[in-house]
Amino acid sequence: MKVTLFGTGYVGLVTGACLAEMGNEVTCVDVDMDKLARLKRGEVPLYEPGLEPLVRRNQANGNLGFTINAAPAVASAMVIFIAVGTPPSEDGSADLSHVLAVARTIGQHIRQYVVVVNKSTVPVGTAEQVRAAISEQLAARGAVVPFDVVSNPEFLKEGEAVEDCLRPERIILGSESARALAVLRTLYAPFNRNHERILVMDARSAELTKYAANAMLASKISFMNEMANIAERLGADIEQVRRGIGSDPRIGHHFIYAGAGYGGSCFPKDVQALRRMARGRAYEPLVLGAVEAVNHAQKLKLYDLIRRHFAGQLKGRTVALWGLAFKPDTDDMREAPSLYLMRALWDAGATVRAHDPQAGDEARRICGERADLVICDHPYQVLEGADVLAVITEWKLFRSPDLARIRDALREPAIFDGRNLYDPEAVEHAGIAYYGIGRGRSLRISSMALDAPLTAFDVLPLATV
Ligand code: UDX
What we know:
single chain; 465 residues; alpha/beta; Rossmann fold; 2 domains; six-stranded parallel β-sheet; 18 helices; disordered C terminus; binds uridine-5'-diphosphate-xylopyranose; UDP-glucose 6-dehydrogenase; oxidoreductase
């Protein structure tokens, strides 16, 4: 099938490559010349396991092409995906300008029946706006061309996106058009094997499903982070509690890990946008507000522990940091807890020496050259001249550390384990002070006066560095 895809960002590129892999003829359209030039050379401008070979293979066999020229790509397509960004506007609502610009381009160039598919995460009601924008352009041309708009949200996880796309748990099609549904059932047939994964619903419900899924997952995380903060104060260990509650199948073991807070391009943005939508209809979503507030505080949790460890005196200290990306297997630092931690440390006069297996360049790009940030190529290099070590991203590389080496290298051996990767007793046994998240049984934390403020602890603004 001839497929055109607008947007070669994360979602667009993965979707395009996977559709090409199934034998479709896919053309990806983007407005960024540099990015297109890189893609044409077979260079994938983001780190995602398995994506580059997939892109290269399908480019080589002619199934995947990249262009800036929208007109022919629109005119010849049977299905057109919109996968452009919907960044948050200043007020927290999703900015639809890119989506609607693509819709207008589609309206200007379609010649025959086409199914327009919304892949971008868009506010409820956007499918109707896309339809209106296309119709307006058709009317301006004096053309009558049939088309349908379908909401088909993506559920890709960064780091596992190719796998998620090739073997989806569900394929949500929001449309009431039998014609459009028949086309998409054919397109998705190779992804829909063994058991039925396609769920058909109206477009508004499909749009809300995406927000509801992300908000539910974000809620699980904030709930566990709140439990961790309670466990810490009550002398319990959240890791034991997690196993205890996860064994109830109604709760489940997934996504109940306390940590340094959730980041990334989806959860923070989508929870905010959903709150906004609800408020727009005169409803204040109390749970969502709490989910955000807990997460905001949690991103500063490691900073709070480090600050308390040093009795508020961070000036001139050096903190070694393992991890910069918002989660492992990506170089993405959008809304990453590391940015909040580093910013707080810098404001307090400390220096950071950081290592991340993939996100070093991204950190340099975001933070720029600064004397209080040293990015190291090797994980143990960060320890040179550092007082303590904080771990904020659970890369596999950090899971079995050489504790003796850490103890010998640090000036004041202490590990702040933002992902509860280590056994507190083993760390203490090696002669290193251990601080985790919600691990009230660890001696260090139980002896800390957690509720007594040391200094005025300003809540940092939500904006990143
Ligand atoms: C998420 C959704 O999982 C995906 O379905 C959707 O399409 C896009 O948003 P992603 O942003 O790639 O995917 O990251 P995810 O793996 O879900 O992790 C999000 C954040 O939650 C990370 O910062 C992670 O560290 C944190 N997290 C996750 C926890 O703190 N605890 C957990 O138990 C799980």
